Amino acid sequence: MDDIAILIPCYNEALTIKKVIQDWQAAIPEAKIYVYDNNSTDNTSEIAFDAGAIVRREPMQGKGNVIRRMFQEINAKSYIMIDGDDTYPADTGHKMINFVLNENIDMVIGDRTETYSAQNKRLFHNFGNNLVKSLINKIFNAKIHDIMTGYRALSYRFVKSFPVISQGFEIETEMTIHAVDKNMSLKNFPIQYRDRPEGSVSKLRTIPDGIKVLRTIFNLFCNYEPLKFFSIIAVFLAVLSILFFVPVFNEYMKTGLVARFPTLIVCGFGILAAINSFFAGVILQSIKSQERREFEFRLQQINNWPVMKGANYYD
């Protein structure tokens, strides 16, 4: 079992991967560096292998699929997840990993807030990051400074208890929400972000991947906060039904007649839908509470695994 594993998912990063590996070899020489090639069409794998990394391949396209494979296959006391594009500094790695190893932090988030807006030149990326951050902090009552950063230090129990669902770049959002919902210990750690070097091309597609991230937030909001989610729908339906019902009721009070039966019927169904939505949220919240208790039992089991006790375990 490794003490520190550095995880680098890669897709066509031949221009930068050698420098990234060398930087981390210098910063944390005792760590093992794993590069997972995600169907690169250049010689990323060959360069990474020659630079001294352990190279593996993930045939299913998408960063989420790569992270899923990494978390399943690699056992270590602590992990650093980093991109292969040379945008994150290696010299802060030891500080971040010390929080995991010595202070029992489950996720240290590399916070790019201070430098990202100045360094990143891609249109709408700053707006998108701020929008996602605001939504998650509001919905999940969190205080995360940088939701979509690819630079994180992770504990063993987080890695082995995190169910990877997302397939693409929305994986960072999913990781953050999972950690917040499961009451994992988090820490924001400021880092100096730098933009990609000239000639290196981002794989992130601003609009399509942004839509995927927002859809992920919507789905996770429904799954992680069902009572709040369905209560919002219930209130919306109830208010809408009442607004349409008031004119019908006023007309009835004045004339004793109901001239708009279709409106009245629709309002009645709207109230019934609101009631159903609310109680659906109550039931799902109860199921989620049961799942939360089962998750805590799983955490206890993970903490008692031989790898957590320092037994001789080989990856």
Approximate helicity band: 40-55%
Distance between the termini: 6 Å
Rg, nearest Å: 24 Å
The gross shape turns out to be elongated
Order of helices and strands: EHEHEHEHEHHEHHEHHH
Question: Main beta sheet: strand number and arrangement?
Answer: 7 strands, mixed
Number of helices: 11
Lateral strand order in the biggest sheet: 3-2-1-4-6-5-7
| DSSP strand content | 5-15%
pLDDT < 50 stretches: 311-315
Find the count of extended strands (DSSP E, 2+ residues). Answer: 7
Structural class, by secondary structure, is alpha/beta
Determine the mean pLDDT. 87
Describe the structure.
This protein is an alpha/beta fold. It is 54% helix and 12% strand. The protein contains 11 helices and 7 strands. It has helices at 17-27, 44-50, 63-73, 93-103, 113-119, 125-139, 156-161, 171-181, 206-224, 226-255, 261-303; strands at 2-10, 32-37, 54-57, 76-81, 107-111, 152-155, 186-190. It has a 7-stranded mixed β-sheet with strand order 3-2-1-4-6-5-7, with helices on both faces. Strand 2, helix 2 and strand 3 (54-57) form a beta-alpha-beta unit. It is elongated, with a radius of gyration of 24 Å. The model is unreliable at 311-315 (pLDDT under 50).
